[in-house]
Amino acid sequence: MNIKYFLRRVAMLASVVTLSFYTLSAQEELNFRYPLDVPMSLSGNYGELRSNHFHGGIDFRVGGVVGAPIYATERGYVSRITIGPSGYGNALYITHPNGFVSVYGHMHCFNDKLAAFVLERQYETESFRQDISLTPEQFPVQRGEYIGKAGNTGSSGGPHLHFEIRDEKGQCTDAFARGYLSIPDNLPPYFRNVIFYGLQTRNGVPESYYIGMPKGAVIPLPKESYICIDAYDRQQGTNAKLAVSEYKVWLDNTLLYHFTLGEVPGTMGRDINSLIEFKQKVVRGRTYVKSLIDPGNMLQDRIKGSNGGIISLGDTLNHRVKIEVKDIRNNCSTRSYTVKRVDSLYAGKIQDSLQVHCAPWFLPNFHMAEGFKLYIPQGVLYNSINLSVDTLENRVTPFAPVWRVANDRIPMRRSASVALKCNLPDSLVKKAFVAYVYGNNTLGYAGGKYDTLRREMVANVLSLGKFTVGVDLAAPEITPTISNGAVVKGNVIVFRLRDRLSGIKKYRVEIDGHWVLAQQDAKTRRIIIPLQDARIQKGRKHTLEFVAEDNCGNESRLKRVFTW
Nearest 10 degrees: CA dihedral of 117, 119, 123, 127? Predict the structure, then answer.
């Protein structure tokens, strides 16, 4: 018998047996175990209000250091491996017989078998970044099998394990709410702060203004207002500020607002910016859940209430506003305030203006001025806005004026597009980009392309605010930690890689003319070269070449000779 034919038949049979096992086991009840050995303690839970998303998993503490062993939460097979400089960093995905997938993020390293496989793939593709899909027969795992160590890779703020259990549709589940895992919790949520905002109509569009924290026995409010709540949950054994799962607001006996977190699809992550008071997030970095319900908020399937969450006072009598927050174990905290309508304190807070026009949330919006175009597609805005577009007197760059488009405190679900007429010499076209203009006239990179015919820069932007056209002429900065001719006694060489404007597009490291693995950590701007994986001989002199390019095509090169 032909040996290749025989081996192919054996492989096919193994695959059929494995798939049959998963089919027969799909209906079995699985018992997910805690994936670590250290005592269970959380640094983050499901549904926390993060920047532009709800936290989709559980963050387990590991004592502040990398290296805690991680174990498979249930039997299955490693179905995906991802590696990158941000996000989950080093991550494993294990598919279980019922179709659920457990995710292990920010890992320091994988077990030896997986690590060897990944290293080989990195050298085959000459890429540090990886996104590898695997079949059931390649890396089957048993419940409690060692799969790697907890770490601090990717966009991690410190050593921990980011853990998820996703259902068969790919939706992140709340493992504690579903009972897959359990942890003692009898502490109620804590109110960190409460503030009020007033509401007033300008040009037919409701606009809000800051009132502040409740003070005194009776709080004076305008005819219409809403309340914003900054609260977090607590648990024994951790100082972490965890997610609150339920918010309620009453005006007297009327339930104005009731938000239940539940399990939020990842595709709705940016809708968090409509759930919160976005102005507070942008200006002060604070996260308040607001009672005001934006009509374009896609989370309305989990929001109940009346009057759009607005505190509407039709008389000058005293009324009671009560707020309540709960965690998933129904531990509860409440606060109550006596409020009274006092119109005189808030008269004229917002003035009508002929310099703005209404941009309805439910329609596409297009604005054209001489030298500037703005397009906001339907479904981008959560609420109608008063849109103003003008230029500032002082320029930041010689290529275009600074265009001020409303402000950056308006939440957007998706991107809008801007086009700025600009005066660019041909030599700078490839270096140009649309720039956000921040405080102190610093520029932020928004990308974009140059339209030669119309002589304008066009880009998609995720916020409104101030824009201009900038150019990036500065190459990335490569900072070595070894001198030329150095003798390296350890097993790694570390470089710092930074670009101050458009950002790093790509880099490549070669030793003795061959590509070597160079691990990127975006948060620390470090490039780490593990020499034991570099496939070079020890005890010899070597030549290292480092090339980096930013998003505007500027390139840096560095050469170092070293002995290892």
Answer: 110
137, with CB counted inside 10 A (0-12, 13-18, 19+), is: middle
Task: Identify residue 299 by its one-letter amino acid code.
Answer: L
Are 340 and 218 a contacting pair, CB within 8 Å? yes
State the CB neighbour count (10 A cutoff) for residue 320: 12
Q: Which residue type does 117 have?
A: F
**Strand 318-326 vs strand 492-498: parallel, antiparallel, or unpaired?**
unpaired
Start-end of CATH 2.70.70.10 domains in the chain? 3-166
In 58-129, beta strands by DSSP E? 58-61, 69-71, 76-83, 91-95, 101-105, 107-110
Quote the CA–CA distance of 50 and 157 in Å, as a whole number: 13
The pLDDT profile of the chain, 564 residues, written as one tens digit per residue, is: 444 444 444 444 444 444 444 444 444 678 999 999 999 999 999 999 999 999 999 999 999 999 999 999 999 999 999 999 999 999 999 999 999 999 999 999 999 999 999 999 999 999 999 999 999 999 999 999 999 999 999 999 999 999 999 999 999 999 999 999 999 999 999 999 999 999 998 888 989 999 999 999 999 999 999 999 999 999 998 999 999 999 999 999 999 999 999 999 999 999 999 999 999 999 999 999 999 999 999 999 999 999 999 999 999 999 999 999 999 999 999 999 999 999 999 987 877 665 788 999 999 999 999 999 999 999 999 999 999 999 999 999 999 999 999 999 999 999 999 999 999 999 999 999 999 999 999 999 999 999 999 999 999 999 999 999 999 999 999 999 999 999 999 999 999 999 999 999 999 999 999 999 999 999 999 999 999 999 999 999 999 999 999 999 999 999 999 999
At the topology level, CATH places domain 190-345 in Immunoglobulin-like (2.60.40)
- CATH number for region 357-471: 2.60.220.30
DSSP letter string, 402-470: PEEES-TTS-BSS-EEEEEE----GGGGGGEEEEEE-GGG-EEE---EEETTTTEEEEEESS-EEEEEE
Architecture in CATH for domain 3-166: Distorted Sandwich (2.70)
